[in-house]
Design a protein that fits this description.
The complex is a heterodimer of chains A (108) and B (123).
Chain A: E1 4-7, E2 10-13, E3 19-25, E4 33-38, E5 45-49, E6 53-54, E7 62-67, E8 70-75, E9 85-90, E10 103-107
Parallel strand pairs in A: 2-10
Antiparallel strand pairs in A: 1-3, 3-8, 4-5, 4-9, 5-6, 7-8, 9-10
Chain B: E1 3-7, E2 10-12, E3 18-25, E4 33-39, E5 45-51, E6 58-60, E7 68-73, E8 78-83, E9 92-102, E10 107-113, E11 117-121
Parallel strand pairs in B: 2-11
Antiparallel strand pairs in B: 1-3, 3-8, 4-5, 4-9, 5-6, 7-8, 9-10, 9-11
Classes of the chains: A mainly beta (108), B mainly beta (123).
Chain lengths: 108, 123
């Protein structure tokens, strides 16, 4: 099975900061990597699919990059509504779409 | 608007059974693959089951295989999860999620999620 790790597991940041979250796969998965945002008490929300494609309606301050085993989610200028937990998900081993452990972004 | 609404959660004793439902609206349900994903309290997301648009292909995570059964009824626009032999470690919020395809089917992601239903397994 493909394992995903995320770093850091948590981070503290201020409004306006540039934030970068990394996801690493245990084997090469091409561009088969998605990113989700989850706020407390809410369902996850798709942000990025196919490593770098922005889901419709998602603000352009979110971007994704990477391929193979190393991927990055970047928030260019953190907004108050962006404080949440972020998960990566691999879709290489369809339909077994495993998730990373998550990265919690909170207020510094 | 696309809507997914789960129901059927609750408190059940270890070894018991529960059937979850997910009512879909706002899209042609029969054309989409569907999934169940769960989240234990304070923990991350765990994919547990998949069903193809036709229902012909099904898959499960090892943690639930042999105990859970996914099904769908396109006439009722509904997805189901029959959960048997429940254990304490099955305690979680259960989400149904639609799988969408991108770039002519080359890539998939879960683009819509329900609000979740809580299953608590405890004596």
């Amino acid at each position: 099975d493909i394992q995903l790790t995320q770093s850091p597991s948590s981070l503290s940041a201020s409004v306006g900061d540039r934030v970068t979250i990394t996801c690493r796969a245990s084997q090469s998965i091409g561009y088969f990597l998605n990113w989700y945002q989850q706020k407390p008490g809410e369902a996850p929300k798709l942000l990025i699919y196919a490593a770098s494609s922005l889901q419709s309606g998602v603000p352009s301050r979110f971007s994704g990059s990477g391929s193979g085993t190393d991927f990055t989610l970047t928030i260019s200028s953190l907004q108050p509504e962006d404080f949440a937990t972020y998960y990566c998900q691999q879709s290489y081993s369809s339909p077994r779409f495993t998730f990373g452990p998550g990265t919690k972004v909170d207020i510094k | 608007d696309v809507q997914l609404v789960e129901s059927g959660g609750g408190l059940v004793q270890p070894g018991g059974s529960l059937r979850l439902s997910c009512a879909a609206s706002g899209f042609t349900f029969s054309r989409y693959e569907m999934n169940w994903v769960r989240q234990a309290p304070g923990k991350g997301l765990e994919w547990i089951s998949y069903i193809s648009s036709s229902g012909a292909t099904i898959d499960y995570a090892d943690s639930v295989r042999g105990r859970f059964t996914i099904s769908r009824d396109s006439a009722k626009n509904s997805l189901y999860l029959q959960m048997n032999s429940l254990r304490a470690e099955d305690t979680a919020v259960y989400y149904c999620a639609r799988a969408n395809v991108y770039y002519s089917g080359s890539y998939e992601a879960h683009d819509y999620w329900g609000q979740g239903t809580l299953v608590t397994v405890s004596s």
